[in-house]
Amino acid sequence: MTLMANVVRTRSHLCSAIEGELTGLISTRSNSARAYGPEFSRLWDIAGENILGGKFVRPLLLVETYDAFDEHARDRSTAISIAAAIELLHYAFLLHDDVIDGDLVRRGRPNLVGALLAEAGQLPPMDQRPDAGRPDSALHWAQTGGILMGDMLLAATHQAFARVDLPHPLRIRLLDLLEHTINETVAGEQLDVGLGDGIIAPELETILTMCGYKTATYTFELPLRAAATLAGVDPSVESALATAGRHLGLAFQLQDDFLSTFGDPRRHGKDPFSDLREGKQTAIIAYARKTSAWAEIEPWFGRPDLCTQDGENVRRQLSECGAETFVQGHIDQQTRAFHDVLADTANPIPDKVRNVLLDLAAQLEGRQS
Amino acid sequence: MTLMANVVRTRSHLCSAIEGELTGLISTRSNSARAYGPEFSRLWDIAGENILGGKFVRPLLLVETYDAFDEHARDRSTAISIAAAIELLHYAFLLHDDVIDGDLVRRGRPNLVGALLAEAGQLPPMDQRPDAGRPDSALHWAQTGGILMGDMLLAATHQAFARVDLPHPLRIRLLDLLEHTINETVAGEQLDVGLGDGIIAPELETILTMCGYKTATYTFELPLRAAATLAGVDPSVESALATAGRHLGLAFQLQDDFLSTFGDPRRHGKDPFSDLREGKQTAIIAYARKTSAWAEIEPWFGRPDLCTQDGENVRRQLSECGAETFVQGHIDQQTRAFHDVLADTANPIPDKVRNVLLDLAAQLEGRQS
After folding, report:
1. Does domain A171-369 have CATH number 1.10.600.10?
2. Using CB atoms, which residue from B128, B199, B279 is nearest to A123?
3. Residue B264 confidence class, pLDDT cut points 50, 70, 90
C-alpha cells in the first residue's frame, strides 16, 4: 500500500470516528428533545442532518494533529469528544451568522432557517384568526428557531468541554482556550456586521483583523491548540502552532474573498458578483477605495441589481487599480509567514505535526473554490 | 435585634456577596473585551450595568437555600459562583427573548438592543456612501449586539459551571442540571413564539406547559436543585425541592399574566392592556376561547390600537366568562400543591430550607406587581 493510500485510509477511519461521536451527541439530544414536542425535536433533526453532512475540517485537524504528537496517545477518546464539540461550535456560529445576515440558503441548500420557513409555509391553516400572527410570522418563527438552535449548540459545545475527565489544570487550559476562541469569533462577527452596516469604518487594517478573528481563530488556532493541550506538550509548542494557525487561517480567509471576486466561477460554483452586489467590505475593496479608480467603482458597489457586464467591468477595474495584486501579495505574505514558523529550527514542533500542517496548507494553496 | 432585622441584614450581606461575584465576572470580561475595540467592550459595559441593577432573585434563592442546608457550609464560594452564573443565564435568556420579540425596552428603560440603537443613531456620518448599509442598519447592528451578547453570557454561564473544582460526579450532576434547564427554557421560548406566530395551536394545556418551561424551570427549579446538589444532600431532597419549585414557578407565571390583565395598573405600573393589544396567548385567553363570550372578545384581541374603553370592555368580558376565576383557581391550585409538598412529613426537606421557601411564597402571594 502506498503512503498516499495509507493517508486516505487513516483519514476515512478518522472521519468515521468523528461522525460516530457527533451522531452520538446529536441523537442523545434529539431523543430527549422529543419529550418537548415535535417542533423542538425538529430543530435537532434538521441541525443534525446538516452537521453530519459536513466535511469535518476542524475536527480532522484536531485529531490528526493529536495523533501526530503521539501515535499511541492514551486519551484519544477525549480528543475525539473535543473535536466533535468544535464541529458543533462551528455550526452554532454558522446558524447565528445566517440569522444575522437574513440568509435562508447555505451552499445551495436551505439552511435550518430556510428549512423551518419552508415547513411553516406548508402548515395547514389553524383554528384561529389568520391575522393574529405577524405578517411575517413564518419567517419570524424560522429565525427564532435559528437563534434557539444556535444557543443549544453553543451549550452542547461547552458541555462537551466541561465534562472531560482530566486533571483540573488541564481542564482549565481547555476552557480558557474555548473562552478565548468565542471572544475572538464574536468580536470578528460584530466587526463584520459593523462594517456591513456602516457603523465601523472600512479601513484595511480593520478588515484584516476581522478576517482573522471571525474564522481563523476557531478554524485553525482552536483545533491546533486543543490538540497540543490534550497531548500534554509544552506551552511553547502550543504557541508556535497557534501562530502558524493564525497565518494559515488569514491566508485562507483572504483567499476566500479573492476567489469570490477573481476566481473562476466554473470552478468555485458561486455567483461571481455576489460580494460586489451585497457591498461586502473586503480587503480588495478597502485597497481600491484608496485609489483613484474608486470614483468609477463606487457607483456599482453594493447594488443588488448589478448585471454581468457591469460586474465584469468592476472586476477589471479592481484588477487594474492594483487591488488584485495587493490581496494576492497579502495571501502570499501570510503563507510565507506560516512556512517560516514551521521552518524555524528553534521551533519545537515535531516533524509529524509539521507534516499535518504542510498537508493542510497544500490543500488550501491548490484550491480554486 | 429582631428576627426580621436579622433576615434583612443577612439578605443585604448576601446581596453584596453576589454583587461582588458578578462584578468580578463582568469586569474581567469587560477588561479583556477592550483589546477587541470599543464596540465590543461596549456590549459588556451595557450588559454589566443592567445585570448589576437587577434584584438577584435567583442567586439569592440559591445561596439562602444552600445556607439553610448547612450554616457552616464548606464550599460557600462555589455556591456563590454558581448563583452568579445563574444570573448571567437569566440575562442571556432575556436578551435573546428581547431580540426575538423585537423589544427595545424592559421595565421602562432601554434594554441592550435599545441602548445600542440609540447610540448608533447618534453616530456621525461616515466617510462612505450613505446607502451602502441597509435602510434599517442601526437596528440590525443593535439586534446583532443582542444576539452576540446573549451568546457570550450563555458561554460565561457554562464557563462558571465548568470551572468549579468539585469531584467529577458532583460536577457532572451540576452540568446535567444546567443542560436540563437550558433544554426546558429553550423549549418554552419556542412554544411561546410558536403560539404568538400561530404555528402552534393555543390549547390551554400547551400554554400551561409553556409557562412552566419558559420561566419556572430556571427561576425556581434550577437555584433550588443547584443548592441541594452543592450542599451534597440526598437526591430525594433535591427532587422534592424541584417539585415544590415547579409548582411555585407556575403559580408565579400565571399570577404574572393574571395581574397584567386583572391587576391594578396603579400598583403594577404596566400598560393594563398590553397583553391584549399584542395578542398574547395566555391561560386567560385559552379559557375564554372555549366560551360563548369569545365571539365578542375575538375582534378586539391582538389589536395594537385597542383603546382604554374597549380594553375595559374586553377585561369585563374576560371576567364574566369565567376566565378570571378559572386562572385564579389554577394559581391557588399550584400554590396549594406547593404547600402540600412542603407539609408532607414524608418529605426530607429540613425546616430551615422549608422556611426559605415559605418566605419566598409569601412574597409572591402578597405581590400586586
Report:
1. yes
2. B199
3. confident
